[in-house]
Amino acid sequence: MGKHEFLTPKAIANRIKAKGLQKLKWYCQMCQKQCRDENGYQCHIRSESHLRQMDLLKESPSMYMQGYSKQFHDDFVKLLSRRWGTKRVHANLVYQEYIADRHHVHMNGTIWETLTDFVKYLGKEGICHVDDTQKGWFVTWIDNSPKALARQEAIMKKERAEKDEEERTRKLIGDQVERAKKEAEELGLDDKEIYTELKRETEEEKIKLNLTLTKSANLTLNTTDKIDSAAENISFPTTSISFSKPSTQKKSLSALVKKSNPMVTQKKEKDKEQPKKLSAMEEIIKEEMEKKKRMENFKVNGNKGDNRRKDDYKDSRNNRDYIDREIRDHRDYKDNRRDYRDRERERERSHKEKDREYRERERERDRDRQYDHESKRIRRE
């Protein structure tokens, strides 16, 4: 029985069936031919071309097996490295994507019987990191390219340099601390320090600092509303550092704390009289309260503002009419735009349908012409 013509429905159906993946047991790796059923496979293995290929395979089976295994290995690793890189991925997922290609090398032509054996081989050769889990075998590609190795070496050098820098700075800081402790011991200074907190309740308040250093130095700290003091005994020559007018008489810290300054009390009263600055939230609340008060006064006064209310009503009515008119115009404009878009879509749809019909007619004419040409050629033969 002869073959069907090229453009007959049977020939087209056969070509469509042959496009996708078929069953692996009906595939011949030597001939690289996929059969669609058992009958076709049996016919193929009895054909002369297949028998010739089998004779070649009998001469050197290991050579063919090694060649197919190498090709399968290279293609699998190339797909793994390009598609997933150095990420951890399920081995079966990689294999499913690999066999999606219709012309791939099948595993039944390689030295590995199962995918598990192949994955174990990759782990032994050091090509991938392999781990077995409850979900199956996972593989991670190891990038041994010169660029990757150079990149890793540069990263390690950078980390090493950062660690060396941190250690160096830590050592310098430790040396400085030890040097400072030794100098303090030589000068007879105490390590303990007394810290006082600087506070001011208002922004306009000024802070005055009186620093006097003597053999038994006194450090005084005066604020306009509160006096907190701190003192240290430092064995330096007598010096005087002041940011305010220095006092003529030397006073102890306890005397300064006990005595109250009349100027400070006067300034306190002035600060209390001055209103505090309000925050944005407080200003909004204050405005709302003032509005409520105005509304209450308006309700109490009653009919005093009738004329003003009438004018306001007219203005609001005119504004409302204007807004309604604008809304109607905007709605009409949107409706017109929508209608215009619908008409454009219908026009495009009709044009596409016409083009499709025209192409189909042209295809039918070409098919008829080709069929007539083939039939004439067959008649001549």
TrEMBL record:
Organism: Rhizophagus irregularis
Source species, domain of life: Eukaryota
Ranges in coiled-coil conformation: 149-183
Key word Coiled coil present: yes
GO cellular component, one term: nucleus
C2H2-type domain mapped to chain residues: 28-50
Record-stated family: Belongs to the KIN17 family.
SUPFAM superfamilies the record matches: beta-beta-alpha zinc fingers
Stretches with biased composition (Basic and acidic residues): 266-297, 305-381
InterPro entries according to UniProt: C2H2-Znf_KIN17 (IPR056767), DNA/RNA-bd_Kin17_WH-like_dom (IPR019447), KIN17-like (IPR037321), KIN17_WH-like_sf (IPR038254), Znf_C2H2_sf (IPR036236), Znf_C2H2_type (IPR013087)
Pfam families: C2H2-zf_KIN17, WH_KIN17
Region (Disordered): 254-381
Single annotated GO MF: zinc ion binding
Name of the protein in its database record: C2H2-type domain-containing protein
GO biological process, one term: DNA damage response
Gene3D superfamilies, sorted: DNA/RNA-binding protein Kin17, conserved domain
Keywords carried by this UniProt record: Coiled coil, Metal-binding, Zinc, Zinc-finger
